[in-house]
Amino acid sequence: MGPLVVLGLVNLVDQIDTSILRAVLPFLKEEWALSDFELGLLGFAFVFVHSLAAIPSGFVADRYRRTRAIGFTLLSWSAISAISAASVNYVNLFVARALLGIGQAVDDPSSTALLADYYPARQRGRIFAVQQVATFVGLGAGVALGGFVAEQLGWRWAFLLVGVPGSVVAFFVFRLREPHRGEADGVALEHVVEHAKFRGGTLSIRDFLAKARRDLWQEMRMIFRIPTMRYLLVGVATLLFTVTGIGFWLAVYHQRYSGMTVTESTSTTAGIFVVGGLLGTFAGGWIADRVYGRGPASRITAVAVAILASLGLFLVSFSVPVAPRIALQLIGIAVGASAAPGIRASMMDVVPAASRGVSASAFALTSAVFGQALAPPLVGLISDWTSLQAAFYIVAPQVVIGTLIMLRARRTLAQDAQAIIEAVIARAQQEAEPEAEPEEVLTQGDGDG
């Protein structure tokens, strides 16, 4: 089984486990008499812990065997799903959702870095499209299956039956070949090894933590000094605030405003995400690679157009009858999903191969802290004060702000991508001259940086 298929399955399982919560929100509200704000905090728990775990996970992805990191994480998800099913009160479930955030934090940077090392830049739009398709399919499957099982057997069974079996994907992950860092770019960076060595022996936990803290700080500073990354990170975080806020509550919205049962609302939402996500993501991957020939910045333009069009379709859908509402939302998801491959591909274009794991973690951290984490509870709080539909309209302007910020990356992307190429060439030249004096190598490296 190829790496793209396996890592797509990893993302599928990840999203299924994550999205079950969206399907069982009405049952939790009824059983524990929760407000929309308290329900939203369950989404916050996952995203907030995910953001805290993202940075060290990126450090691991750039220095250790990524297939093992993903495989062992997958095995842990079954236990976390069982903990969710066994929750006896709100606090128990809050803690279980927080623990699940650690799992996705480990998976995402490792998967992103692996795909960038398996496949060259000219193919990455389509490659990340396949990965993102799994996101929408998993999201839809988790919502649909979770809602159906919850209505038939209870919400605890939804976590147990839908969430637990996904760990079988770990078997295929362990069988993947670990590529060299930078392999797809023609440069193998093998200064990273599976086990860190220190003075002839394995690093102690204390030494490892000290090294991780020092190296992480240096790499994060390097990433945030890249102008294109700053614009992409801030822009995506801002627009994800709205995307997450609406996506988290969409099934509940249809139950309340479209006259649907829980099963009908979750099935409808699942269909919107799966069909729209499949069509949009594959189209977005093709578009991202097609416009790349006109210049790397063209990807960002295509992404911005897709995001704004998607927002417009959703805003109109909230004020029309049910049938056209569903159609507009499906088209809106398709158009919005077409932006995902271009964002990932643009980010990989301007980051050194040896730092792609940390760059994915920086992306996760920024988008979570400033976007995704606060959206579910804040939309829930606004819903408690007004209505869920009013909350959707109130958070919508964030998308426009985020898109305008992201568009500024067009001015810097080509220059930053060229700088990465020059740095790779300089590094290769240094490694080809082992006889150079240490002082000369150090001076040359400082000058390139």
Descriptive notes:
- The chain has 449 residues and is mainly alpha-helical.
- It has a single domain (3-178, 226-427), classed as Up-down Bundle (Growth Hormone, Chain: A), CATH 1.20.1250.20.
- 80% of the residues lie in helices and 1% in strands.
- It has 19 helices and two strands.
- It has helices spanning 3-32, 36-63, 66-85, 90-118, 124-153, 155-163, 169-174, 205-224, 227-257, 262-292, 297-317, 322-337, 339-349, 356-372, 375-385, 388-395, 397-407, 413-431, 438-448; strands at 197-198, 201-202.
- A two-stranded antiparallel sheet has the order 1-2.
- A hairpin with a 2-residue loop joins strand 1 and strand 2.
- Helix 3 (66-85) packs antiparallel against helix 6 (155-163).
- The protein is globular.
- 53% of the residues are buried.
- Mean pLDDT is 77; it is low at 189-201 and 435-449.
Strand order of the largest sheet: 1-2
Order of helices and strands: HHHHHHHEEHHHHHHHHHHHH
Net shape = globular
What is the CATH top level name?
Answer: Mainly Alpha
Overall pLDDT level: 77
Strand percentage lies at: under 5%
Main structural class: mainly alpha
> If helices are DSSP runs of H or I spanning 4 or more residues, what is the number of helices?
19
Radius of gyration: 22 Å
Tally of domains: 1
How many strands in all? 2
Q: What is the CATH T-level topology?
A: Growth Hormone, Chain: A
The major beta sheet can be summarized as: 2 strands, antiparallel
Overall CATH architecture? Up-down Bundle
Instruction: Write out the CATH superfamily name.
Output: MFS general substrate transporter like domains
Helical content stands at over 70%
Distance between the termini: 40 Å
Low-pLDDT windows of residues = 189-201, 435-449
